[in-house]
Design goal:
Layout lengths: L1 H35 L3 H6 L1 E8 L6 E3 H13 L7 E9 L5 E10 L2 E12 L2 E11 L6 H7 L1 H11 L1
Parallel strand pairs: 1-6
Antiparallel strand pairs: 1-2, 3-4, 4-5, 5-6
């Protein structure tokens, strides 16, 4: 009987984990869809109140209120941004209230990578931290590095 109970527990744990990953996947998909449809309220309802969005520019470390202010004109004009998921990996520990992920996206900037952390709240899973990066093929790194050299040096001087 103990083996049967252990087996049932394992099956339940595996299905619970799969269900949680499915819920997280749905939140991320809905979040990207809300941006594509310029649905400001839905987009920000899927983030925690203290959520952070790290953009592709080195200066973009947006706390929620600042990101709302920055984003509002894009949503108001009816076309925020459109990201389609090409690939997504979701990670969580059993019974955890934290999950993390990485995703490959088709965007207006070409292929980008998103990664972040979600937190399980009383309202469900919410995005607490999101990082968007433009991908650079290895054979183009030197060229891109030269392209952004002046900007990087200026920003390093400002930060130091």
């Amino acid at each position: 009987m103990k083996k049967f109970t252990t087996l049932l527990f394992l099956i339940f744990s595996i299905s619970l984990s799969a269900q949680e990953k499915s819920n997280i996947d749905a939140v991320l998909t809905q979040w990207h869809k809300a941006a594509g449809e310029a649905d400001f309220d839905t987009y920000f309802s899927l983030m925690t109140k203290d959520g952070v969005f790290i953009g592709t520019d080195a200066t973009e470390n947006w706390q929620n209120d600042d990101f709302r202010e920055f984003s509002k004109p894009y949503f108001d004009r009816g076309n925020a941004w459109s990201f389609t998921t090409l690939e997504r990996n979701i990670y969580t520990e059993e019974n955890s209230k934290i999950a993390w992920f990485d995703e490959l996206l088709n965007t207006q900037m070409g292929i980008c990578r998103g990664s972040g952390v979600l937190q399980k709240t009383n309202e469900g899973w919410k995005i607490a931290h999101y990082v968007l990066s433009i991908t650079v093929p290895n054979e183009n790194v030197e060229e891109v590095t030269k392209l952004k050299e002046k900007f990087d040096k200026q920003l390093i001087n400002e930060i130091d």
